[in-house]
Amino acid sequence: MLPRHHEPIAAIATAPGRGAVGIVRVSGRALAPYVQALLGRSLQPRQAHYLPFPDAAGQPIDQGLALYFPAPHSYTGEDVLELQAHGGPVVLQLLLARCLEAAAATDPATGRACLPGLRLAGPGEFSERAFLSGKIDLAQAEAIADLIDATTSAAARSASRSLSGAFSHDIHVLRDALIHLRMLVEATLDFPEEDIDFLHQADARGQLAGLQQQLAAVLQRTRQGALLREGIKVVIAGQPNAGKSSLLNALAGAELAIVTPIAGTTRDKVQQTIQIEGVPLHVIDTAGLRESSDEVERIGIARAWDEIAQADAVLFLHDLTRRADPACRAADAAIAQTMAARLPAAVPVIDVWNKSDCLDTRAEPLEPGALRLSARTGDGLELLRQRLLDIAGWQALPEGVYIARARHVQALQAVQQHLDAAAAQLATPSPALDLLAEELRLAQNALGAITGEFTSDDLLGVIFSRFCIGK
Q1: Where do the structural domains in the chain lie, given as residue ranges?
Q2: Would you say 386 and 395 are in contact if contact means Cβ atoms under 8 Å apart?
Q3: What's the whole-model pTM score?
């Protein structure tokens, strides 16, 4: 722990703005004398007390509830004081200022300041202390922020599962099995003179294969959890008047983008996050792709290509009513060629033929994988939604998923690579046990990075700096 982790902290723990109730939270060591100096009385642990919150002159700032949680039975693992007052910004700022001021008051018993060094908490510092004191692990701490930031009900439920420890439990099960396997390998290394094949008798290969199967199941659920949290970026692209803005409006269920018959109506990107079966999709409508002498439209087209280059999936929209037009087909071919040059090979491009309601084109065959729809009537939208879920890799798991982050997926992929290397080593007639042991050690370290057992201070700083202040 760094020196700042021992300093007492205070902050407003509720969201900015007006509300019915606001909370000021203080966390530190040995808060009992401080509580006496601040409120003029002691508090029974874990009991709500309705009382006035006085200023330095003894005049009440407000009246509300005070709760005192002595260590270690608190959120942070330290002594915690919470003042619940009316949720006006001025009232809460006055209370916070009084909390900081009262820290310098002298304790009659010792003659020293009641809470020296009390300062404003940084973003996520209360949760960081809960992690450092062992109240929660790092995956649970991240789930707190994910629960607050959840944009869909499925993401909120999954974050709640992670916060309750479902994800951490699966990681600990993997870790325990990995530690047992490491023990067998280390025993063989430590006692080479014994004429006993520890690994063969203990079925080390079988244990490693079982571990790989467990890891594959956890990795699948983790990928689903990361998808629930991050979603995918879908860019709608195509020629002017293909119906891109109409498709965005249809997917969002709202009139977000202006739709007119005039080519070049959309000059800049319009973005909306929608959800399909709880999965967030960040859909971006872009300017029509064509050669233009209009400077403003050219800027919009350049931005459209920038968005396409960063997409997770591209909806390449075509106009069914102009399918037989040679100029339109040539323009589509030029756009497709440019897309192929700018997009990574792994990024899917879905050919979508719009305006199926304008003429009877149902008998006309389309290219393999292409979709036919009408953004105006909604015909074919459900197939498009399902195709987007398939591209995202979404699979509704019956046992539910837990929220996860890209770093969790990367860590588990590293574990998978080390276990694969260990399995390859174990499959040789004369395995190099020192290399096998090293691969298993690296796999355990990668697992520990998820829950925070092996985590750098730099990573902790990045994670908790994204929390809201007071949490």
Answers
A1: 3-137, 160-227+405-452, 231-392
A2: no
A3: 0.78
- Pull the structure tokens for residue 82: 């919470």
Query: Is 160-227+405-452 assigned to CATH 1.20.120.430?
Result: yes
**What count of residues does the chain have?**
471
Structure tokens at 329: 């087909």
From CA 280, how far away is CA 286, in angstroms rounded? Answer: 19
Residue 331: how many other CB atoms lie within 10 Å = 18
**Phi and psi (nearest 5°) for 310?**
-105, 10
Structure tokens of 206? 């079988």
Beta strands 49-54 and 270-276, pairing class: unpaired
Superfamily of domain 3-137: Probable tRNA modification gtpase trme; domain 1 (3.30.1360.120)
What is the rounded CA–CA span in Å between residue 213 and residue 19? 50
Buried b / exposed e over 124-158, threshold 16 CB at 10 Å, is bbbbbbbbbbebbbbbbbbbbbbbeebebebbbbb
Beta-carbon count within 10 A of 265 CB = 17
Tally of helices (H runs) and strands (E runs) in the chain: 15, 12
Dist CA 31 CA 342 (whole Å): 60
DSSP 382-428: HHHHHHHHHHHT----TT------HHHHHHHHHHHHHHHHHHHHHTS
The C-alpha atoms of residue 443 and residue 216 are separated, in whole angstroms, by 14
How far apart (Å, rounded) are the C-alpha atoms in residues 27 and 78?
A: 6
User: Pick from 294, 273, 297, 274: which is nearest to 286 by CA?
Assistant: 297
Fold of 231-392: Rossmann fold (3.40.50)
pLDDT at 67 (0 to 100): 97
Please name which of 80, 75, 79, 82 lies closest in space to residue 141, comparing C-alpha atoms: 75
Whole-number pLDDT of residue 264: 46
Cα angle: 233, vertex 237, 238; to 5 degrees: 170
Q: According to the model, what pLDDT value does residue 255 have?
A: 58
User: Which residues sit opposite 238 in a β-bridge?
Assistant: 317
Could you give the 3-state DSSP secondary structure of residue 26? strand
Measured distance CA(440)–CA(178) in Å, rounded: 7
Comparing CA positions, the residue from 204, 165, 170 lying closest to residue 184 is 204
β strands within 29-59, DSSP E: 49-54
153-164 and 166-190 helices, crossing angle to 10°: 40
pLDDT tens per residue across span 135-172: 999 999 999 988 888 877 888 888 899 999 999 999 99
Tokens, residue 76: 């942070």
Residues of the chain with pLDDT under 50: 195-196, 257-267, 398
Considering just the CA atoms, what is the radius of gyration of the chain in Å?
A: 30
Task: Pick the closest to residue 51 from 28, 88, 81 (CA basis).
Answer: 81
Classify residue 456 as exposed, middle or buried by CB count within 10 Å of its CB (0-12, 13-18, 19+).
exposed
Instruction: Return the bridge partners of 240, or none.
Output: none
